[in-house]
Amino acid sequence: MTRREEEFKLSGSEVIDKIKELIHQGNIRRISLKDESGKAILEIPLTLGVVGAALMPVLAAVGAVAALAAKLTIVVEKDTEEEKEEKKEE
């Protein structure tokens, strides 16, 4: 299984909007927030069923972290097309 990672460096005020955008893409396995020194401060595992009201506590936690940090890095772990096909076959 191969996974792809992307990183986005954002200010605290941009983080929630970016996370909402990423979740709506639907192929995200995990989102990690790191501070300016690269230390992981929050990891959010995502499943296909995480939508709507289930996102509210996650976004509240992200908002609290974003309020405390001037700059954050979002690390996004995505499924590749190969992994999606493997899941469909199971």
Q: How many domain units?
A: 1
Give the SSE string: EHEEHEH
Instruction: Kindly state the number of beta strands.
Output: 4
Portion of residues within helices: 40-55%
Unreliable spans:
none
Largest sheet: 4 strands, antiparallel
Give the strand order, joined by hyphens, for the main sheet. 1-4-2-3
* Assembly state of the chains shown: single chain
Mean pLDDT: 79
Rg from Cα? 13 Å
Give me the secondary-structure category.
Answer: alpha+beta
User: So how many helices?
Assistant: 3
* Terminus-to-terminus distance: 14 Å
Shape: globular
Strand content: 25-35%
Question: How would you describe this structure in keywords?
Answer:
3 helices, 90 residues, single chain, alpha+beta, globular, four-stranded antiparallel β-sheet
Describe this structure in words.
The chain is of the alpha+beta class and 90 residues long. The chain has one domain. The chain contains three helices and four strands; from the N terminus they run βαββαβα. Strands 1-4-2-3 form a four-stranded antiparallel beta sheet. Helix 1 packs antiparallel against helix 2 (55-68). The longest helix has 14 residues, at 12-25. The mean pLDDT is 79.
